[in-house]
Predict the 3D structure of the following.
Amino acid sequence: MTDLGAWAGKRVVVTGGAGFLGRRVVETLRRAGASDVSVVRSAAHDLRHWEACLDATRGADVVIHLAARVGGIGFNRRSPGTLFYDNAAMGIQMIEAARQHRVGRFVAVGTVCSYPKYTPVPFREADLWNGYPEETNAPYGLAKKMLLVQLEAYRQQYGFDGIYLIPVNLYGPGDNVDLEDAHVIPAIVRKCVEAVRAGRDEVTLWGDGTPTREFLYVDDAAEAIVLAAERYRGTDPVNLGSGAEVSIRDLASMIAEMAGFRGRLAWDTRQPNGQPRRQLDTTRAREAFGFVAKTPLREGLAAVVEWFRRQALAKA
């Protein structure tokens, strides 16, 4: 529960505030009592350009930087340069613009893709620099990790108040379901629901199903970000997750069951698996600002399946 008085009189700027996660963060801020929330959209502010960053941060008390170029493994493989440049350029310039405008607090939202490929499970924040990220995620993950370096340097030199959060894979209704760019949950949901409607008896999925992942429901992630912005006064990065690990094979079986797909799940082992395992140690978030994820995976998956069914029916 947030402090309803903590946001009174503060102008909060949320980059990417019209996106999948951003919409929830804006809603959570308003429920927490923030009445002056500005949403920075890419159509009006291309944050790869310096003047747009200056304009976006002018007059802000708090900046929550969510804007990012992101996608699934396929997009990562096709566009590593774009992912590195766009994410580094946006983040670096937003932090510098916020510093120049004397913004009181900056919240940078990073990515679990920054962790080394073979990080011991559960991932602890202290392991962040102990190796190179998984290759398909590395350009995106390293671009985001540079923002942590920048915030630490700016705190040391300028006394700049910035925090860095590391969410695990997010999911929920409203996610991107374009199979060229989608993450694993919306991609499997779409394939299974569409297979049922078309009467197909086989769905093909990437990899071999053995990697594990942890997932955080998007509404829980929004609560975590707002709580951290309000309460966290530490200087170390903080993991945001549910603490529950599941294999992609088991995940796909759950989704298929919920979607009513009774056919065969085929695994295309020519495609990459990505990082072998992912599960976060979420102790710091719980102890530092009281965040504990509320939404069980099966409940969240059911919401995504139902949402996509409604979307599919509306387009039929």
